[in-house]
């Protein structure tokens, strides 16, 4: 998965598990950028009576680096507060929830949004903003789309924000990928061959909790640059998200836990699949605790990714060119750690400098595509991954093909990718239920419509 349960420790703390990050120029409001950070993976829609919610004891943050030093120049902080209206019932709601202030809704969440500048100054952009409820079913949440729409809040300066449950937007044949890369429908070529069969979209009926923010481009770029020229370095921003907990938690058998001390980062994410697939098992917990500025220690894993070594072993004779490729993967370093410099791809760059850091890099001067391609830049669409990431981008296929050698000709024009590279996929077709407007991820599945597995 993109970053769901990607490290041993964070797998025990799902409320702080940052699962996906998206950053893209808004297709319906191209003067703005949309940033989305998802948390709490693999939510069964029928998971009541204590339905999923953000953690009141977690500091959620979306960070922007606009000068290439892998440090946050702008950070948006989100703190949540849960209010219980009726503590004398076990029910999440005692009747239909028809509005965000419905008296039937017993456990509501609100949040505060704060913008923090590099110099330490901060500004509260919104207080006591309501989240929508989880999508329970047609009796409890009969008009869910309206509830979600009411939970989109306007921010000063032309921005808007949403925090709440959404349908999981990351699509992948999860069972096949983690079953020794038994990629469907290529099982007949595997070391342990089986007849080809269609892939299974493992996450299509699951939900996630999203923090979505849409703000003017000039509020993110260096010196408020208007982003008129894609060649200008000020058009490029680096984005990552994180979750932190306070260092000390005290438990008392008569009271709620008390939290104190400085905030300690427990999860972070920039590019999809970085910690999931690139970082080795023994360093995954460490990676989650470090800041992007410390990512030089992980360059060697990008230069020589394990998946690139496994593919020729698991698919004998299928990837001979990849097997012979032993040079450090400068193409992957550019895609994941530095951005792509000018001159490699016509009309494009999202280079942030030589300092390696796992950031989702977005050139905000590249306009939204009139004909989006789910394979992003690999499909000739400069507005897609790895130029930021849109909700529908097929990042599993893009990264699989890149690791398998599809992007190495950018570095070595004499290299020819193996014929099988174009057949590598995440195993499933893209979703068609994404919204065409903020917050873009689809309405969450309800527990009534999707029985617990």
Overview features:
single chain; 453 residues; alpha+beta; seven-stranded antiparallel β-sheet; 9 helices; 12 strands
Structure report:
The chain is 14% helix and 26% strand. It has 453 residues and is of the alpha+beta class. It has one domain (10-423). The strands form two sheets. Strands 3, 4, 5, 6, 10, 11 and 12 form a seven-stranded antiparallel sheet that branches. The chain has a five-stranded antiparallel sheet with strand order 1-2-9-8-7, with no helix packed on it. β7 and β8 form a beta hairpin. The radius of gyration is 22 Å and the shape is globular. The mean pLDDT is 94.
Number of strand elements: 12
Oligomerization state: single chain
Portion in helices: 10-25%
Largest sheet: 7 strands, antiparallel
Our count of helices gives: 9
Low-confidence stretches: none
Which shape, going by the Cα principal axes? Answer: globular
Supply the helix-strand structural class.
alpha+beta
Mean pLDDT: 94
Strand content: 25-35%
Alpha-carbon distance between the termini?
Answer: 19 Å
Radius of gyration: 22 Å
Give the topology string: H per helix, E per strand: EEEEEEHEEHEEEHHHHHHEH
Instruction: Please indicate the count of domains.
Output: 1
